[in-house]
Amino acid sequence: MKYLPTIGLEIHAELKTVTKMFCDCPNDPEEQHPNVNVCPICLGHPGTLPTINKTAIEAMIKIGYAVSGAINPQFKFDRKNYFYPDLPKGYQISQYDAPIVVGGRIDISARIGEPKTVKLNRVHLEEDAGKLAHAKDEQGKEASLVDFNRGGLPLMELVSEPDIKNAKEAVAFAKELQLILRYLGVADADLEHGQMRFDANVSISSSIELGTKVEIKNLNSFAALESAIHYEIDRQAALLDTGKAVAQETRGWDDVKKITVSQRSKEAAHDYRYFPEPDLPVLAASDFPLADLKLAVPELPDAKRRRFKELFGLTAEQINVLVENKDEAEYFESAVSELEADEGEVVNTEKITLLFNYLNSDLKGIMKDRELDFSNLKLTPENFADLIAMAVKKEISTRTAKDLLVKMLEKGTDPRSIVQEEGLGQVSGEGELLAVVKTVIMENPKAIEDYKKGKIEALQFLVGKTMAALRSRGNPEVIKSLLEKDLSR
After folding, report:
1. Radius of gyration of the chain (CA)
2. Among 12, 170, 222, 434, which one has the highest count of C-beta atoms within 10 angstroms of its own C-beta?
3. Same domain assignment for residues 322 and 284
4. Which residues have CB under 8 Å from 209's CB, separation 6+?
5. Which residues pair with 126 in a beta bridge?
6. Do residues 324 and 93 touch, judged by C-beta distance below 8 A?
7. Is it the case that residue 456 has pLDDT exceeding 90?
8. Contact between residue 246 and residue 206 where contact means Cβ atoms under 8 Å apart
9. Are 249 and 239 in contact, with CB atoms under 8 Å apart?
């Protein structure tokens, strides 16, 4: 039988603040030593009182504006009571019925290639729990160790409406949210460091009525999110096909066996015994600089995609590559603005595409080898654009352009200075090239014989030999023309 999946996501992301949510302990995801960024407040000692991190609230308001949500006129914190080894207080400070952001939407059309917008239910703020590490002691017995460094970090939770229909849309939604958070600068959302995690609510039905919802908890990669949803849809379908009922429960993802496993029956809100946090005040949105925070929201990924499409004539795939990294997109745009236009013309798509190709393959390849990123390059967009202009005008060969990139990254020098210092300009004059061509012809009689027998590849061999003799400075088109003219005699 054919079933219709319905999926909603709950996405957690740690916010990038200097200190934790309710105390002055450092917010340092890179800290490797356990239990050093802790204090009596985040460890839940009796008699301690939390204070609210204003920067985290302002980050949430910016997120609200970015996803077109409504900022609640008043919002508060609540205690969510449950017991777990990594939650020393026995409760988590979260938000229940008065979150900071209500509603909103995220457009994922550019990622899936068809129109699709996912509506949001809410975005609220809470504190993160600690982290459990499971290991064996010297006797081989299982042991669980608790690291509270993460406990108390400001944690955004975004809850979507059940608008998602398949795993592809779910991953697209998660990736677009990650990118929005990075553009805002409020979160790194690094999956490898556990700074972003997903819960997926999955149900299937053969009618318009929703099926029984199953929650898959703590998915820590896009691959896990996709695989877990695929598996859960198939698992529920197999149950319904055999006349069995799907149990409402919470399941975990076994990344080794690639299956979901039952953890507990699904809790309802009353199971957590929410009540208003008595140690924290109700906050009014009007107490925050809303107009300034709205203005601080930068151009977001989807708007940048639309603008790049109008301005640069690139393909959707090329635009997506650029937009995935805010610094890269800004570097590219700055370089394009520096490209020389032909007299009386605007910079054409061919030049822009060449610039993109050099940036995406050659420049990024060298950067990867040297562990560089676009935020700290010595190579300025102006100098990079000048390099492309020289290649377009055939002032330098393609090979020389690639070599120049390395030198420019190392020295931070403009390409024309290096070309002049090292004599790397492209040789295009027939008189200068002809002498080298004749020498190559004399030194390679076998290739000449092969060419006259109809082996066209022999011509390319001779072009290569000539280019080598000229240290890649020769104009290959002129060289080829001279060879063909000489060999036709």
Report:
1. 30
2. 170
3. no
4. none
5. 155
6. no
7. no
8. no
9. no
